[in-house]
Amino acid sequence: MLTLLAFVWPPILVKAGQLILSFSILVVLHELGHFLPAKWFGCRVEKFYLFFNPWFSLFKKKVGETEYGLGWVPFGGYVKISGMIDESMDKEQMGKPAEPWEFRSKPAWQRLIIMLGGVTVNVILAIIIFIGITWKWGDEYLPPQNARYGLAVDSLGRAVGLQDGDIVTKINGNPVKDEMKVPMQIATQEAKHITVLRNGAEQQLPIPESLIPALNSSRGGDFAFVRVPGYVDELSSEKEYSAEKAGLRKGDRIVGIDTVETPYYQDFMRTIVNYKGRTVPLRIERAGQPMTLQMPVNKDGRIGIKVVTDMEKLGFKTEVKEYTFAESIPMGFTRCWNTLKMYMTGLRQLFTGKAKVQDSLGSIFSFGSVFPGQWDWQSFWTLTAFFSIILAFMNILPIPALDGGHALFTLYEMITGRKPGEKFMEYAQIVGMVLLLGLMALALGLDVWRYFFKK
């Protein structure tokens, strides 16, 4: 066991592990939200599965009337409630007279509670996680005045007039709290203008509408970053990189390439690509002493290093607002609501052309890619809460085959007193499944395209 824990897992396996654990928690609790009220109201639950199990199951065990199991397709899970038209399309059962223990024989209000149980649990789960995160870690941020070297500006930032060393102090006239979140806030707030501090004086820069879709497309990656010095943190042992063999050591600070000064890591990254496939003089400082190393650069313009990104180690003074447990409770609700608003803004931007489907839609592989390459519980729980909100929102949409579609038909029955015909429900389920499978195929195709062709 100690050997297993000490093993250094590849980042892709760490990401996959976090994704599977996160989605397992979300799926089990979502389905539990359907399972428990179904049992309370006397419905027979035939199956409770984590992951899907076409043809066979990895594990299954029947307890009472319910078969509990683990499928082999890790894209979700399900509960099969007797007498309910679902993805199993059990026409034989639906053709028989309704039994008292079937979903379809229950009053509409009970069926509505059963259908909304999964979404309700996901919302409650997100709130509880946000409460826990707030209580455990508080709220850490980098105030603009503490961004000691300002910003390193990329192409999108330069296009709106930003310069290296600028500090963004306001967005749409509202003070910036965290300098590290500026690109995301400009996109989500659809900023019209920003205020920057340059050479001790503030000035306002207009933001063209074209910047928002560009920011969404690059996910903020081509705008600006907090400027940091280039202190070496890790050296790759892969054969294509030679930084370690050339004499570079952890803790060295990179200050120049050939005759070009690179006082900040972003300067180094901009410059090194000009020396692809060459060996160049790399100027560093080691324990305050200047040194020059002959550094081979590979064909991609890389030397195989990771630099220190921890703000505290770099001398940046981040601020942390701590909360008592009582104070964390309202903050948990607030963070849940703000996250939902941010997600809804992203969806609205898809329909208004401020975000592109090919840049925003992704499959399970996109979700996995956002987890860090090293296990980090704060990131894990934050992303799990975020995905819980997405799962709740997507499931409440009034689309047949989703919880929201079933809830809509039930509300129609409660208002009109007329129950939709089982044939209609069957066709609606088929249409909904086709739509969902098509969307999943599109998302998977976009991920494949991004991986192989968009580099």
Report what the structure shows:
The chain is α+β, with helices and mostly antiparallel strands. It has three domains: 10-134 and 383-452, no CATH class; 144-227, Pdz3 Domain, CATH 2.30.42; 230-307, PDZ domain (Pdz3 Domain). It contains 14 helices and 18 strands. The protein has helices at 2-6, 11-40, 91-94, 108-137, 155-159, 182-188, 211-218, 265-272, 325-352, 357-360, 364-369, 377-396, 403-416, 422-452; strands at residues 45-52, 59-63, 66-70, 73-81, 139-141, 151-153, 167-171, 174-175, 193-198, 201-206, 224-226, 230-235, 253-257, 260-261, 279-286, 289-296, 305-307, 319-321. Strands 12, 13, 14, 15, 16 and 17 form a six-stranded antiparallel β-sheet that branches. The protein has a four-stranded mixed β-sheet with strand order 2-3-1-4, covered by helices on one side. Strand 7 and strand 8 form a beta hairpin. The longest helix is centred in the C-terminal third of the chain and has 31 residues, at 422-452. The radius of gyration is 27 Å and the shape is elongated. The chain starts with a helix and ends with a helix. The model is unreliable at 1-7 (pLDDT under 50).
Which structural traits does this protein have?
alpha+beta, 455 residues, Pdz3 Domain
Distance between the termini: 40 Å
Question: Could you name the ranges where pLDDT drops below 50 across 5 or more consecutive residues?
Answer: 1-7
Total domains: 3
Note the beta-strand portion.
15-25%
What is the assembly state of the chains in this entry? single chain
Transmembrane segments: 112-135, 380-402, 427-449
Subcellular location: Membrane
Protein name: Zinc metalloprotease
Family: Belongs to the peptidase M50B family.
